């Protein structure tokens, strides 16, 4: 039989056994102008296949409103041009440390816990989305001359649910939309995950970072025949704001990769190249151990993942160790490394000469403001990424009482009668100083990323309970949202009324320019700034936060241009220190990893 198929013991291509040596590279985390370079790096490492998720919320920001779904098709074409097969993992849920696990906020806001089940309302949206998405996949399948050799059904569903009716619906939907290449599922190598997440007649694969022999033994207990594949070999890990940077020893990772291959299995490196969570798309996790029901742990902007190809597209020690392991399974000599992208040569100061207070930004770019009986959630205000300004009156006269927020997600900067009074979080939801009435209270609440894994995926953002003065709820709450995509119109951002007077580090929108000669990959550094977002020439390079561990933001070279470049900084809490200690600069990339 010709073409790619799942055989009794191996993957087969035109009737002969073939091993998949794949690597994860998410097209949505890499600037499109740099796809070719990153794909060539995968080929140079010894891979013959690339894998990507598809984030639904990126491509359908509102029901029936599609946004650049064709990016997936262009990426698959680039993979074919690089000589790589492709594995597509369309979800509808993807995890991926991505906002809401890829599910749109408007969807989870409407269906709640009915997401990822057989619920008719949920499936109606899935059917519409897949009807559009598969037009990018189906014509590019291997049996039609394209690179796509496999498509995934859901994602690690056994870590979440057990609705076999739902999974079977997805299988039938993919087939009805024209997917003819093999389908598969991927789950952790545990009995409850494999029974909950796999589908009879569909290839089951396993996700793990070590102990391949034991993992595949568990998989074989459920699937005695069929190719073995680790669909996610976790060769690194991701970072959370306020935590330590996570790394994995390259030698240990190479040994684990070797063990997978010595089992006769195929593999997908997760990640081969991680990239960047541009535009505030980073998700969040919940701590609390196996239940994933504890404190919020928001993910940083970088998705470097300690991958063999780092965030800037450079080979690391892990790359060279993996290349040595993979070379033994290649069908000939491995290609050399592609020419690296150009890099900025020297530090360049950014002149932030204009400032507008947050209130002016909200008035110019925010959504409509209305009064509600109780605080509306982000979902009710149609805010996916961004912040909401809540305002409420403490009636008076009354003596000072504690002011607190129930169900706060995630972080609120509080002002009382125009003066900053403190910062509230889920863990510390009460102001340290009592509030007397009559007083006007404003709470600027930011979502730090929706949960992307576990039972609290899809939870609402904003003030989900209420504002309390002592034990009394305060009603009549004004609210309006500011979405990050409101900054996609450069003319609108330039139109925010601003002053050229020194802002003294106050919260607000800072605007300025940086002169560049010899544009190339760079980072933007913001010492002494607290928390917010940065745009360069209208491109949102992501969130910064003094909590660390990330201390600078990647600016892809294609974003920059020779001469003057616009920079906007949206500071949400206010920075500390004198202006000279808080200078913003465009800088060369950090030192590259040592190479052989």
TrEMBL record:
Protein's name according to its UniProt entry: Beta-galactosidase
Top-level enzyme category: hydrolase
Domain Beta-galactosidase 1-like first all-beta, first and last residues per copy: 375-475
Gene3D superfamilies in the cross-refs: Galactose-binding domain-like, Glycosidases
Catalytic activity: Hydrolysis of terminal non-reducing beta-D-galactose residues in beta-D-galactosides
SUPFAM superfamilies (alphabetical): (Trans)glycosidases, Galactose-binding domain-like
Known EC number: 3.2.1.23
Family: Belongs to the glycosyl hydrolase 35 family.
Listed PROSITE patterns: GLYCOSYL_HYDROL_F35 (PS01182)
Organism name: Streptomyces longisporoflavus
Domain Beta-galactosidase galactose-binding: 507-565
The keyword Hydrolase is annotated on this UniProt entry: yes
Domain Glycoside hydrolase 35 catalytic: 11-328
Entry keywords, A to Z: Glycosidase, Hydrolase
